[in-house]
Design a protein that fits this description.
alpha/beta; Rossmann fold; six-stranded parallel β-sheet; Arc Repressor Mutant, subunit A; seven-stranded mixed β-sheet; 3 domains; 44% helix; globular
Length: 421
């Protein structure tokens, strides 16, 4: 008769409202489903209100967020095995002593974002951080990584911490962000320490009429899908190895529950890559009219705008704007609007339950038939065929490479198509 595995009661001390924490938990779940480990998981939406007397909890082990100083202090008194999770530190003395520690590599996160902005041809760089505080130690480490890279390359970097986010300070915070953005040399690439921070700065750019990415190319960290849907310009982001961190932490704790010990063991997990979207796809534009037009198109292409509306926004005649577009981009304003609409439709078709009629409306096509004709002309397939190819496992990038290119755009890949590098 097969032996029934021992059930261990494990507390996961994470904030389920944060994308970082949710992905850690997902990684722990993946480990449990791939092994014979039998864990009864204790998880609260807000565990911090239960930290008092946590040492009296009658469980077998903890996996916990050690970026939170309150957690570090509370778990210093427990006797059960603990795997700590948090950010990496430039100073070895900043790691929790005697703990098994799994960390996201803060230096590599920032370096990956920085290298991406360099490849986009930028020469000026900024970092949007957070105010100094014990709970923001990870943000200060990312700020230090940025400054180390600037010093290494002999560049003057621009660091801005701003204020903490709150309803009371929101208007003042946006005004301060706009003032900082206007003071910067242009064009500039800015690395935000989180997607939430990047989204704030992106909104400030839109409020101030600062073109993204022509004047400010912006990239965050977390690859948070919520941040992407809350902005008109889709946000590029570094993808942390958080799921792998969760799997690694669970594996270590599983061994510790059976007698293994890993004091002062530190495992640094590198980032997975970058989800490259519109906010960091910087291309040099020589004329401000083209930058202004692109800024408007990027925000409103899917709302059915016409060339005349773009020209009105820029403040010049349609014929003049067409001339500037032909000279700089070798395509018309209409082609550029259509390119954004097509890319938006391609992204929506990746959802299994998406319907062509809904997508046509969402992306600003005048009818399903027109969207069908555009797909057939530009991609060589219908929307349904494109979706079927996705379902069969052929990714969009592979599909595009396999098709003959048609002259919708003569200047490289679509500005709003996501690419992981």
């Amino acid at each position: 008769m097969a032996k029934v595995p021992t059930v261990h009661r494990i507390a996961l001390l994470f904030n389920g409202n944060k994308i970082f924490d949710r992905d850690i938990i997902a990684g722990i779940g993946e480990y449990l489903t791939s092994t014979r480990a039998s864990w009864d998981l204790y998880l609260e939406e807000d565990f911090r209100c239960r930290l008092q007397d946590i040492e009296r909890w009658q469980g077998h082990g903890f996996i916990a967020d050690f970026d939170d100083p309150a957690v570090c202090d509370a778990l210093s008194r427990v006797q059960q095995p603990v795997v700590a999770i948090g950010g990496s530190y430039a100073d070895e003395a900043d790691y929790p002593a005697g703990r098994t520690y799994v960390a996201t590599d803060n230096f590599k996160l920032v370096k990956l974002a920085y290298d991406h902005l360099i490849e986009a041809g930028l020469q000026h760089f900024g970092c949007f951080s957070l105010p100094q505080a014990d709970v923001n130690r990870w943000a200060q480490e990312r700020e230090k990584a940025f400054e180390a890279l600037m010093q290494r390359d002999g560049i003057h970097g621009h660091v801005y911490r701003g204020v903490g986010t709150s309803a009371q300070s929101w208007d003042a915070a946006v005004e301060q962000q706009i003032a900082w953005l206007r003071s910067l040399p242009k064009p500039i690439g800015i690395i935000a320490v989180t997607d939430a921070r990047a989204r704030q700065l992106l909104q400030a750019c839109l409020c101030a009429g600062i073109a993204v990415p022509e004047q400010v190319a912006l990239i965050g960290i977390d690859n948070d899908p919520l941040a992407r849907v809350l902005t008109r310009v889709e946000l590029s982001s570094v993808i942390q190895g958080t799921v792998e961190m969760g799997r690694t932490a669970a594996h270590l704790l599983h061994q510790m529950l059976h007698g293994a010990r890993f004091p002062d063991t530190r495992i640094l997990v590198p980032p997975v890559g970058i989800n490259v979207l519109a906010s960091s796809r910087h291309e040099a534009r020589n004329h401000p009219h083209v930058m202004q037009a692109m800024h408007f198109i990027r925000q409103y292409a899917c709302q059915g705008i016409k060339t005349e509306q773009v020209a009105d926004y820029v403040g010049i005649s349609r014929s003049s704007l067409e001339w500037y577009f032909r000279r700089e981009l070798d395509r018309s304003v209409h082609d550029e609007i259509l390119r954004f609409k097509l890319d938006a439709a391609k992204r929506l078709l990746q959802a299994a339950d998406s319907h062509a009629a809904d997508i046509a409306v969402t992306c600003g096509f005048t009818s399903v038939q027109y969207m069908h004709a555009v797909f057939k002309r530009e991609l060589g397939c219908t929307p349904k065929e494109y979706q079927e190819q996705l379902a069969a496992g052929a990714g969009p990038a592979q599909q595009e490479a396999a098709r003959p290119r048609r002259k919708l755009t003569a200047a490289g890949s679509p500005a709003a198509t996501g690419t992981t590098i």
